[in-house]
Amino acid sequence: MSDTGLEGAVTVRRHAARPHRTRGQHRASWAAELTPILSGTQRRYTAVVGSAVTGASIVALATAAGMPSGEPDPAASQAVADIAALAAEAETPEESEQATSEAATPGEPGAEATAEQETAEEEERTSPVTPQAAQVEWTAPLDSVNITSLFGQRWGRNHNGIDFAAETGTPVYTVYPGTVKHAGWESGFGNLVIIDHGDGVETYYAHNSEINVSEGDWVDMGDQIANAGNTGFSFGSHVHFEVHVDGEPVEPLGYLDEAGLSLG
Q1: CATH superfamily of 147-258
Q2: Are 234 and 190 in contact (CB under 8 A)?
Q3: Alpha carbon distances (Å) from 4 to 15, 16, 18
Q4: pLDDT in tens, the chain (264 residues)
Q5: Which of 20, 134, 180, 227 is the one with CA 20 to 30 A from 49?
Q6: pTM confidence score
Q7: Domain segments of the chain: what residues?
């Protein structure tokens, strides 16, 4: 209400607690009251937005009580706009960047940039591995390989190895590291060397003219263990070679091929 002083003149009463407000007229902007609260603070963006929503709700409710149903209140709309502007100003650059990154979705520029950055970081942490060629683990027993007889049936019984042509005195090498199990005369084998390679695998070198190792010796791959000859049951100088696995002779060419040495 208002009091009448002079005839036709109206005395305007001001709000006792907030003199900048005028009763019966539009309300002052809420921004003027919230500015001292938000100014100079380090509140997080979420707290500011929460305050803005709460303040806007209070304004809307208070205004709705004095407005006719269905009629918008310009003061309430202005208050919401002012609070939203202050909230935006209170947001720090770091929070803005974080919000943008979190809001990015696949297919948007922000998401693509983040994916590219993660890919680049992953590539920096991963060193390329250069594949290496397979190493040959076994070597040939002679400098020159010429196979004259294969594994299988011969003369009514099984020929348990393969024969290599070799002149008497030709160096004979061990095909793989191991321990000398036998070095001496052995019936039809003549001068025989047997190398134990471990895991149940043994190799035989027969008909030698001379043996250069002793039982119990350790030999590396390619070490000379004997000289080729024509001793034992033999019809000419050569090297008889066998591979035994768990005490049984196996086809040498197939085994050597699986071990990385192809003599075929």
Answers
A1: Glucose Permease (Domain IIA) (2.70.70.10)
A2: yes
A3: 18, 19, 23
A4: 444 444 455 555 554 555 544 444 445 555 555 555 555 544 544 454 455 555 555 545 555 555 555 555 555 566 556 666 665 665 555 555 555 555 555 555 555 556 667 766 665 555 455 555 555 579 999 999 999 989 887 777 888 999 999 999 999 999 999 999 999 999 899 999 999 999 999 999 999 999 999 999 999 999 999 999 999 999 899 999 999 999 999 999 999 988 888 886
A5: 20
A6: 0.51
A7: 3-108, 147-258
